[in-house]
C-alpha cells in the first residue's frame, strides 16, 4: 500500500515537474523574444531600461572598475614570498611591496592629496619609482613621471601645467629640481627619495624624506579606488622630439589592459626577471611597471643603463627579459668586450621606436639576445603593435629574416584596431607593401586626451581614429612597416624618400655608430637628404665615403647629398630630436 502510494505520488510529482518545465521553457522563449525586440540601447538611460527589463543588475558582485591596483593586491596574496624588487643590496617581497605602497598612499592623503591631484616624480629606475606606480593611484591621485633630462625651465613649465601637488625627487636631480621650484609662484611639496637619515640636511620645512614619510603611513589604510575605470591614473608628457611636450592622460582601464597585453606579447610569466633598462618615466615603463605585479615577476632596478651594468645584472640575477630603444641595442653591440659577460641563457629584449637596423639585430642575436620589435607612442600607452613572429620565417635566409624583424607588425590583444589610412579620405591603403598612409589606432589603450589642450586632442582623434603622424605601408599579410614620420619624409623632385631606409643603409657601414637623416633645402630638387653621422672610435671617413657607400646600395636620388659628422641630440628615451637637426640642415643653406 505504501509502495503503491509512493509510486503514485512520484508519478504526480513527475507530471507536475514536466508541466512546470514546459511552462518555464515557454516563459524563457517569451522572455528571449521580448529582449530581442528591444531597441539597441544608445545612451545610459536606455541602457539602464534594457537592463531592468532583461533582469540584469550591475553591482559590486559582478562589476569592479578595472585598475592595475588589483595586480598588486593579488600579488601580495598569490606571490607574497616571491621577490618583487632587487636594487643593489635591497630586496623586497610582493607582500612587503604591497605594505609599503599602502603606507605611502596613506601618507600622501595625510599631506592633503585627494582624488585627481597630480603627484610627480623626477627619478631614475630605483625601487621608489616602482612603488609610486601603485601608491599614488592607491591614494586616488594621478602619477606624473617626469623626464630626468629636462632642464629646470622645462620642469617648471610642466609642474605648472600639471598643477603638481607633490614632487618626489632623487638626490641626483635635486639641484635641477630646486632651481625649477624657485621659478614657481606656488611650488609643490618636495619628497626626497632617501632613507630617514640619508641625503642633504638643509631641506626646508616643506620637504620630507621618502622613508620617513612612509613610516608615518597607516598599514590599514583604505585604498582609494577609481569610481570610474576611465578615471586618470597617470600623466605622461611626450618626449618633445617634434615640439613642446604635451600631457598625455592614461586611464585605469587603459593601463590595466595595456599592462596585460605587454607582458603577454613579451612572453613573460611568474618566473620572469625583468631588468629595468627602459626608463620608468617613459610611458610608465611601457606599462611593465604595473604588468610585473600581474604575473608576480621580479623587478631588477638599475640607476644607470650602460653595457657593463646590463651584463653584470643579467649575470648576477639571471635576467630573462629587458627592453630598450634601438640606441640601447646599438650601445650593447658596440660595447667593449671587457664589459661583456656570457649570458646565462637567451635573454628576451623588447625594442621600440625607429626600426632597428638588420645589422644590429644580427649582432644582438650573436650575443644571445632574442629581439622582438614593438611599435607605439606615448598616446598608445607605449607598445601598440608587435612583429608577431611566424614559425615558418625561421627557415628563411638570414637577411630576409632580419628584414622581417624590423616590421612593426600587428596589433596586440588589448587594442581594438590599427590600420594604415589615407589621412584625407580615411580609406585604408592597399596591402601591397608600397602604398603609404598614416598609422591610426582605435581602442581602449589609446589615451584619454591631451591635458588642457582640447584643440590638439580633437585633431589627434579627427575621423574617429587616433592619428599617429607616422607613415607606413601594409604588407599582404597585414603586417605594417613604418617608413617615416610625416614630418621627416623627404620630397625630392616629386619623389618621397624614406629617411629610415637611408639610415638603415648608412648604419651598415662598418665605421658608423649612429646616424639620422633629415631634409635639407635644395634650389633644384626642393629637398635632398642630409645625414648626421657619429663615427665609432678609431674610425675616420669623410662625407664622400658615406655618399658613395649609399649610392652603391640604393638609387642615387635617395643617397644623401650632405653628410655632417657630430653627436646626435637625443631625448632621454633614446629618440633623436630631428626637429633640431632639421634646423641645423636649414642653417646650412639651400644647395644650388
From TrEMBL:
GO terms for biological process: phenylpropanoid metabolic process. Gene3D superfamilies: 3.30.300.30, N-terminal domain of ligase-like (3.40.50.12780). Keywords: Ligase, Phenylpropanoid metabolism. InterPro entries: AMP-bd_C (IPR025110), AMP-bd_C_sf (IPR045851), AMP-binding_CS (IPR020845), AMP-dep_synth/lig_dom (IPR000873), ANL_N_sf (IPR042099). Residues 501-575 form the AMP-binding enzyme C-terminal domain. Residues 72-451 form the AMP-dependent synthetase/ligase domain. Pathway: Phytoalexin biosynthesis; 3,4',5-trihydroxystilbene biosynthesis; 3,4',5-trihydroxystilbene from trans-4-coumarate: step 1/2. One of its GO terms (molecular function) is (E)-caffeate-CoA ligase activity. Belongs to the ATP-dependent AMP-binding enzyme family. This is 4-coumarate--CoA ligase. It comes from Deinandra increscens subsp. villosa.
